[in-house]
């Protein structure tokens, strides 16, 4: 590990502990050259999960793309960033638990809708209007009735 202060490569781990529900390791380190301390985090690398889009294209799963969609839906709603981050993480875990290398964008959308519906009906309707491609007021009325 390279020291962020002096760029020396010799560092010593002083303390390690798991964080983020066991998904990451936090390490407190000390540079052996300049003696300054810093913290590093280790996470499992990106998932090998592919998304099959409606038009048949394949692209790698992008947690940030899911997050952007949720952020648009919850704009000006009383929903915390912690909730949004947890929602996105839980959707990713659900997709990974399916033990498939490829998941449909439809299954990702359904997973997001399921979680939003429990928390905020307006955010759910906003997300649904894009995900389900509402075209007119009748589509909104039908979704609200259901």
UniProtKB/TrEMBL annotation:
The keyword Zinc-finger applies. It comes from Candidatus Woesebacteria bacterium RIFCSPHIGHO2_01_FULL_40_22. This is Transcriptional repressor NrdR. Binds 1 zinc ion. Keywords: ATP-binding, DNA-binding, Metal-binding, Nucleotide-binding, Repressor, Transcription, Transcription regulation, Zinc, Zinc-finger. Residues 49-139 form the ATP-cone domain. One of its GO terms (biological process) is negative regulation of DNA-templated transcription. Its cofactor is Zn(2+). Pfam families: ATP-cone, Zn_ribbon_NrdR. The keyword Isomerase does not apply. Negatively regulates transcription of bacterial ribonucleotide reductase nrd genes and operons by binding to NrdR-boxes. A zinc finger (unnamed) spans 3-34. Belongs to the NrdR family. PROSITE patterns: ATP_CONE.
């Amino acid at each position: 590990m390279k020291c962020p202060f002096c760029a020396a490569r010799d560092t010593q781990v002083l303390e390690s502990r798991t964080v983020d529900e066991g998904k990451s390791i936090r390490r407190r380190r000390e540079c052996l050259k300049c003696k300054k301390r810093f913290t590093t985090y280790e996470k499992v690398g990106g998932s090998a999960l592919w998304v099959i889009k409606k038009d048949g294209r394949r692209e790698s799963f992008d947690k940030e793309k899911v997050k952007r969609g949720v952020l648009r839906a919850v704009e000006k709603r009383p929903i915390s960033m912690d909730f949004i981050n947890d929602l996105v993480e839980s959707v990713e875990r659900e997709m990974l638990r399916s033990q498939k290398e490829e998941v449909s964008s439809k299954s990702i959308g359904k997973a997001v809708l399921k979680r939003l519906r429990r928390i905020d009906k307006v955010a759910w309707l906003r997300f649904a209007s894009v995900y389900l491609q509402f075209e007119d007021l009748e589509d909104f009325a039908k979704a609200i009735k259901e």
